[in-house]
Amino acid sequence: MKFGTKAIHAGQHPDPSTGAVMTPIYQTSTYAQKAPGDNQGYEYSRGTNPTRKSLEDCLAALENAQYGLAFSSGMGATDAVMKLLQPGDEVITGNDLYGGSYRIFTKIFTNYGITFHFLDLSDPTIIEEYVNGNTKMVWIETPTNPTMQVVDIEAVAAITKKHELTLVVDNTFASPYLQNPIDLGADIVMHSVTKYIGGHSDLVMGALMMNDEDLYKRLWFIYNACGATPGPMDSFLALRGIKTLHLRMKAHCENGRAVAEFLKDHPKVEKIYWPGFTDHPNHHIAAKQMRDFGGMISIVLKDAGLDETFRIASNFKVFTLAESLGGVESLINHPATMTHGSIPKEIREKVGVVDNLLRISVGVEDIEDLLEDLKNALS
Ligand SMILES: Cc1ncc(COP(=O)(O)O)c(C=O)c1O
After folding, report:
1. Catalytic-residue membership of 89
2. Where are the domains of the chain?
3. Distance, CA of 74 to CA of 51 (rounded, Å)
4. Domain 245-377 has CATH 3.90.1150.10
5. pLDDT value at 117 more than 90
């Protein structure tokens, strides 16, 4: 099945009791058993729920994976992956990550005896310099949040396979429509479903997709034992959002390109980060592993201090100043004080998350209105 057909149908069947075409919202915490243990595969909704199961099967299909697990947030999914590790283990990861990932690694899992190495992975050969007997996992984000660095997933997978490490790819920025890391050798794909997959800024959710049965069983154990699983209403909303994922992503990419081109030579823009430009340092890798370049763009404002950056960020009428990304509506974000506020200034500035950087999530509104709004806000 092709992507759009999977988005609409995978994991979903008309309800056998009524023929309802849309997956019912099984708003129940528990399930009747004929005798103890004699059930239809459902016991208690922390572990299994039919609406969530449909969603998980659909999510797995979108990433060409055997198994999917939905979590109550992207961070809940990240937390579950980290619980695969033991004290003394080491993780190699990128130096430009979503601020919440950096925070959970440095402020939570470091305290449990796990060591993280934050590296510039634009050249993956650096990984081998840091691999030792304690290394267990490589965690990458590509494109990265917010400087849109592109990491070569296939090249990283060749290294993780050689050293028997688990490769996890946070595929939130690309979405499964643009990139499928499992096809490129990843072991686990992680998503903040909150973003493009949900697509309507009306839910918070995470997901993990994988092929290996043993890994799935270990992650399912953590998911059920720790309990960060989403309810049926949110699972339904995610399923409903996914039905238009392919249509939305086409529009995000088209508008993203138009906005990037508009901003590239704008007198108020000092630097622009978008992997679709041929002069982006890893454009050739983006062109190889992604089907298009997406609607996420970051810009550095020319000669702007914090006050001027705040003035411009608050100057929009169609774009909304807000955290998050990937919804149908266009958003502006100030990473230094919003999404990446938990990263110390000297560390974030080293990777380009400066005070005059703005991140743009280009939505699917009419492009003329978006360009007019950008023109006015930057004036
Ligand atoms: C790349 C990336 N990964 C993970 C997350 C965390 O997801 P959630 O907010 O759903 O917990 C985010 C949230 O912004 C993100 O942008």
Report:
1. no
2. 3-242, 245-377
3. 19
4. yes
5. yes
Active site annotation includes 46: yes
Active-site annotation holds for 67: no
Q: What is the DSSP letter of 182?
A: G
Class of domain 3-242: alpha beta
pTM as predicted = 0.97
Choice from 145, 190, 323 to test ligand 1 binding pocket (greatest atom count within 8 A of CB):
145
The Cα–Cα gap between 107 and 344 comes to: 12
By DSSP bridging, strand 357-361 and strand 296-301 are antiparallel
Q: At 303, list the tokens.
A: 């000669």
Cβ of 172 below 6 Å from ligand 1: yes
For the CA of 78, the closest atom of ligand 1 is 4
User: How would you list the strands of the sheet with 90-94, edge to edge?
Assistant: 67-71, 206-210, 188-192, 166-170, 135-141, 90-94, 115-119
* Ligand 1 binding pocket includes 170 (Cβ within 6 Å): yes
pLDDT digits (tens, 9 = 90+) for 346-368: 989 998 999 999 999 999 999 99
- For ligand 1, atom 14, the nearest C-alpha belongs to 324
DSSP-derived secondary structure letter, 30: B
CB atoms within 10 A of CB 146: 30
pLDDT at residue 339 greater than cutoff 90: no
pLDDT in tens, 134-156: 999 999 999 999 999 999 999 99
Residue 196 in contact with ligand 1 by CB distance below 6 A: no
CB 91 within 8 A of CB 138: yes
Any ligand 1 atom below 6 A from CB of 201 = no
N-terminal to C-terminal alpha carbon distance within the chain: 47
243 is catalytic: no
142 Cβ below 6 A of ligand 1: no
CB 175 within 8 Å of CB 33? no
Pairing, β 115-119 against β 90-94? parallel
Q: Taking 90 as the threshold, does the pLDDT of residue 343 lie above it?
A: no
3-242 shares its CATH topology with 245-377 = no
Task: Determine the Cα angle at 247 with ends 61 and 259, to 5°.
Answer: 120
